[in-house]
Amino acid sequence: MPVKVLFVGDIVGRPGRKAINKFLPGLIKELSPDFVIGNAENAAGGYGLTEAVALELFNAGFDLLTSGNHIWRREFLPYLAKAERVLRPANYPAGAVGKGYAILEKNGLKLGVINLEGRVFMRHLECPFRVGLALAENLREKTPYILVDFHAEATSEKLALGWYLDGKVSAVIGTHTHVQTGDERIFPNGTAYLTDVGMTGIRDGVIGMRQDQAIEMFLTQIPRKLEVPKTGPKKLEAVYLEIEDTGKTSLIKRLRVED
């Protein structure tokens, strides 16, 4: 039997958490995933994560939370430093608190998860290609089932990493842009790929934020902090994977449920 994994796209603020409570139980009932993972770097107020919100998401059914460049809220760092089920990108330099990979164990199954951050249009971190390959080779000694969350801006960088890790991990799933792409595929050596899984939150905002504020920012070119809308229709975007005992993925399916 294949290992079933449900990966939920970037959860944005309180509306994203409400969407989780509304839609995730039905997906779990329908798909019976062995592991449920979500990117939660925007789950608290649209920016970052808190201990309380992390615990809320675990109670909602998540086995592990990944993240990205917004994970570094100062008040969250003590929890991140000790958390076993919250990841930050693995390619931050030595001294960054937290960890960038984990092995989940559940019902006799082991799933390796690697969190990486891109460098194009983002921070100049350690190379996600080299770090990702080294971690994949290490995890393969413990389990054939390995998923990579690549939190990156550039589609080219995401696609290149997918090809680079083909046959070395089970899936490379992109996050960060909050826009679900339609290019899911399985590469020749068995690695599933999706440029961006999308987001979970307000359906009719601008990547989960208020339309009016985003439009004003683009019109005036004056930077501002965008806020999460308080009300509105919600959506959950995710990807579902079935991974064979060889570590190769046999099925990848994009998902979207909404009000």
Automatic annotation (TrEMBL):
Alphabetic keyword roster: Metal-binding
Metal-binding among keywords: yes
Domain of life from the UniProt record: Bacteria
Binding residues annotated for Fe cation 1, in chain numbering: 10, 41-42, 178
Record carries keyword Transferase: no
InterPro entries: Metallo-depent_PP-like, YmdB-like
Residue positions of the active site: 70
Xref: SUPFAM superfamilies: Metallo-dependent phosphatases
Molecular-function GO terms, alphabetical: 2',3'-cyclic-nucleotide 3'-phosphodiesterase activity; metal ion binding
Residues annotated for Fe cation 2 binding in this entry: 41, 69, 151, 176
Descriptive protein name: Metallophosphoesterase
Organism: Thermodesulfatator autotrophicus
Lineage: Bacteria, Pseudomonadati, Thermodesulfobacteriota, Thermodesulfobacteria, Thermodesulfobacteriales
